[in-house]
Amino acid sequence: MFRYPWYRHPFVEATRHRLGPAWRWKLAGESLDEEWTSSFDRVDRYVRWVWLYRRQVLFGPDFGAVTDEFWNLCQGAESIQVVRSIREEMMLMVLGECLPPEIADWYGFDENVVRVWEGTYFDVRDGLRATDWLNAHIIEPERQVGNLRCAAKLSLALRGGPEIAKRLSKMESSPPTDDTQRRQVEELELAVNSWIAVNQPFRSEKDMQQMLRYKQQLDDIEHQAEAAREPESENERYLREALEKFQFQVGNPLPFWSSPDPPIGPVAETDPAVDRTNQG
Predict the structure, then answer these.
(1) pTM for the full predicted model
(2) Which of residues 238 and 149 earns the better pLDDT score?
(3) Domain edges within the chain
(4) Which of 35-49, 171-185, 233-247 has the lowest mean pLDDT?
(5) Which of 11, 113, 214, 224 has CA 20 to 30 A from 198's CA?
(6) Residue 241: pLDDT band with limits 50, 70, 90
């Protein structure tokens, strides 16, 4: 069973800060045609496991044999990463602070596959307050390539929490079945479109008018809620807080030492790096 390390070495944090959420995958790929010489084993041995897995994929088991268990976990994680729709939904759930067991249950994945995917491709869980770093490595790249809808949903999930993340992940695939769900989807759709309007460049007067219309719609929702004088529901609070924080504010730098809360980054009870069946 994989568990989280409670401490991150400063060198690990500096590397993650530079390379982004997929730092282990990228670092392991820098020396695939060479023997493993990195000192990372002393501070994060999981990098070597990823290196061995990538060597085995490229060159065969004689060049990087891992156990069947770890191979299967890496294969499962990679199958998540290569399918854009699944990858984006998983990113939403992590940014919304849904825990690995919850994500695994939500999608029907093995929990260890979820942990290996996070540790390999999306290592952000203990840095969710480093908003500048998240913006630079996750949201801004999506915006730059024109994937504004994904960028908007990621931003809302980060600000809205678990409930908003779950609803955002199912917006496209699960149509509402009653009036309450329909209203929630309409509000989320408006929030997504508003984020896009605010964060895309204005090319014409029409773009400015569109943003003002979204702003008016958001104001109308707020006025209607005030007029009804009903207690704010938990879901409405999540959405309101997400909408109030559209744009990233100046955030805390990524900490060199993690908090006592367990970060993502799987570590096994026993090192599965070398497959005994391939030893001479």
Answers:
(1) 0.73
(2) 149
(3) 1-130+254-280, 145-251
(4) 233-247
(5) 224
(6) low
